[in-house]
Write a structure and sequence with these properties.
The chain has 238 residues and is an alpha/beta fold. 47% of the residues lie in helices and 15% in strands.
Length: 238
């Protein structure tokens, strides 16, 4: 695999997808920095697991230790203030009249990309890695490949500097994401993703399942559970 002598910024929430994306980036770029967002999310516990995940990832391979750079946490309180969603309010997680789940935070990923683009400009980074996925997502329009491609064009034009957005999970499902973790880092990385990453929308880490911690009933937990079950099933047949 060719190592890019460049810096990449990874949108790193502390979830399954972003953890695998961070490992993916550490395999490919000479320097990797991480960016998290504190936007008043209901599952704020994801911010608590991030430092532990970073340290554990760096400890898995000497090369990763050498390549992992600074972490940045950006406060976006205004996003929660203007949002009325189940990720920023104590409201029911359900399908809204729009046809989208109430966990959809309008404009969230667009805002994330703008802030990361500005940070990338300051840090001299030309690559941004994010865990958006169009295969088994909840219908969020800002996770679609077309949206990401449009943002890449907008950032490149707006910053007058070439910016490349990488979405290594765009066309794979959760089962494949577990498989990618194992392919990149073997059992240690797979175990780390299961044990320490956080996906539950309710921020519940009191219940341990074979796929990790979570309430077990919210859409994020169900998606992760189904993906892990499929991953284990496919593993047995190969």
């Amino acid at each position: 695999m060719t190592l890019h002598n460049d810096t990449a910024l990874v949108l790193f929430s502390g979830g399954q997808d972003s953890t695998v994306c961070l490992a993916w980036a550490l395999e490919r770029f000479a320097r990797v920095e991480t960016v998290g967002f504190d936007y008043g999310q209901r599952h704020v516990i994801e911010l608590d697991v991030r430092p532990r995940l970073r340290s554990a990832l760096a400890a898995q391979k000497p090369d990763w230790q050498a390549r992992l750079g600074d972490d940045h946490v950006i406060k976006l309180d205004a996003l929660a203030a203007i949002s009325d969603t189940a990720l920023t309010r104590e409201t029911t997680i359900e399908i809204a009249e729009s046809g989208l789940p109430t966990t959809f935070v309008p404009g969230r990923n667009l805002i994330f990309f703008c802030f990361v683009g500005a940070l990338a400009y300051r840090r001299g980074a030309r690559h941004i890695v994010a865990g958006m996925c169009e295969t088994d997502y909840s219908g969020y329009p800002d996770c679609r490949d077309d949206t990401v491609k449009a943002m890449q064009v907008a950032l490149t034009l707006g910053l007058d500097k070439r910016v490349t957005l990488h979405t290594p999970l765009m066309w794979i499902d959760k089962a494949d994401t577990f498989a990618m973790a194992e392919e990149i880092g073997g059992k240690p990385l797979l175990d780390l993703v299961i044990e320490d990453s956080h996906s539950c929308y309710l921020g519940d880490r009191s219940k341990r399942h074979d796929w990790g911690y979570g309430c077990g009933t919210c859409p994020a937990c169900r998606l992760r559970a189904q993906g892990f079950a499929k991953f284990m099933s496919e593993r047995k047949t190969t």
